[in-house]
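Before relying on records like the one below, remember that each one covers exactly one chain. Contacts with other chains, cofactors or solvent are not represented anywhere in the record.
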Amino acid sequence: MPVASKRPRRLSDEDLQQMLTLLRGADSAELKLTVPDTTVRSTVAALGMDPLEGQIRQVYFFDTPELALNQHGVVVRARRVQRREDDSVIKLRPVVPDQLPAGLRKSPNLVVEVDAMPGGYVCSASLKGTPGGGGVRAVATGDRAISKLFSKEQRAFYADHAPDGVGLDDLTILGPINLIKLKFSPADFGRRMVAELWLYPDGSRILELSTKCTPNEALEVAVETREFLAKQGVDLSGEQQTKTKTALEYFSRSLKATADA
């Protein structure tokens, strides 16, 4: 199955054709760009973002210390969201939409999405749920089992794709990551954008800009978005970072360092 390309800024003709095939079977497309840390302040100013309009979130990941789930393309995550209910997700990536079971594909809780960024793309299937009752905080404090955050449907999806012998309650809590999410509509740009500033415990940060669209308009929107951002002086040449991968690797290193100590 196709995976995110490691080549910077440009897809080959073959990669582009594979991405178009995935788009035809997806529910949505999300176009993403991470900007270099040195240009975060100028990017915020150029796009007229107001941090005080942002929403605070806490993200918890669940994996083994060695990241066995991540190596199998499985992401287990739960979030606390300011002024909203908690949510949870079991995500599988990469996937080919046409190869997903028909029953699962019809679930109203499943979203198949193609994420595209400069030089790469990946298609994922996310099965979402709503734990309710402050469940994420209870799990974080050790007062509730991890498996209680996920519905029967999610647990079955996990069991189908997780490594043998690794149950949800066998996982380690990796988190939290604190972040600010801002939805905004830049002047002179006819689409809504989303900015997420992820703040890692070691002081590093990632600012990701994104916009969603339907699969059949992805290429057109990608060109329009790139032209708009370039016109605003946003740096499009930086190395792209993955928020989830960065978080998982950070906590995995921390656990190893603690164990070694």
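Residues 243-260 form the longest helix (18 residues).
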